Amino acid sequence: MDSTAPSPSVLVIGSGISGLACARALHDGGATVRVVDRGRVVGGRLATKRLDDRPVDIGARYFTVPEGAEFSDLVADWLDRGLVRPWTDTFESLTVGAPSERKSGPARYAAPKGLRSLATDLAESLRADGVPVEQNSEIEDVPGSGVVAGIRYDTIVLAMPDPQAARMLEPASPVAEELFGAEQWQPTLSVVLAWPERRWPADFHGAFVNGSLVVAFIADDGDRRGDGAPVLVVHTTAEFARAHLEHPETGIEAVIDEVNGLLGIRERPSSTYAHRWTFSNPAEQHSEPFLLRGHIAVCGDAWGAHSAVSTAWASGDALGRALTA
């Protein structure tokens, strides 16, 4: 039975950057909004893990700011308040068995306290404006009627990877039919390797890796965050991750061997940690910025030109604006 008490008009499920951006646009547009997430903390794939008494980014590698994007206003505010810092525009291109090359690209930004601190900042701003942002809130089923736990919402926003959104919908939901399946999403393992002191060149920021069956990207987390800690975060290939999703720790040794070979490191790390991302990033993108069908909407980094933090924010922001237009 539906609740007779006044209810929020929009329920946002997911407190990653797309969900928080959507909630901000909804609130600023005059809607009543509630944000819930099953996780203990906000951030989603803007994930930061505290290891050896320091935060380490184990989710998104960095973010860029597309020219002319409204996301730039938010980033400018973060820069002014010291929440983000320009990291680098230059990465190595490492190919197994070949000399390394140095390649420049767009400016990459990072966060001194870890990228999750940016989601925390967005959530705290919403809470300060009276928007509920609730963690440890488990919602398993989202019917097309818009009624969840006895409360009717005008719209329910699923701010999460498509396969996770599809699991929450009714089996015959027309929304689910428009979402990418699990096979269209790439997994990865994020493996943290820490040494007592730096074992690689001082001007190394990170590297895209080619021709490896194990490693796809390496980030110097101390360089990225600005504290100089001798910590590397390695993102594996999708194929390697699939073989170790059940037990991520079983992939650590192969990652150590590959990284040591690529960077010429002889010593083994003093501490390690592995985290799995079953749906790290979409293998292809939706052409629209979001999906809105009846009472159900979906947003995230799969909705836009390419998977990125800025895409996720723009998707949520565009959906929030559309719902209050």
UniProtKB/TrEMBL annotation:
<protein>
    <recommendedName>
        <fullName>Amine oxidase domain-containing protein</fullName>
    </recommendedName>
</protein>
<dbReference type="Pfam" id="PF13450">
    <property type="entry name" value="NAD_binding_8"/>
</dbReference>
<dbReference type="Pfam" id="PF01593">
    <property type="entry name" value="Amino_oxidase"/>
</dbReference>
<dbReference type="InterPro" id="IPR036188">
    <property type="entry name" value="FAD/NAD-bd_sf"/>
</dbReference>
<dbReference type="GO" id="GO:0016491">
    <property type="term" value="F:oxidoreductase activity"/>
</dbReference>
<feature type="domain" description="Amine oxidase">
    <location>
        <begin position="112"/>
        <end position="278"/>
    </location>
</feature>
<dbReference type="InterPro" id="IPR002937">
    <property type="entry name" value="Amino_oxidase"/>
</dbReference>
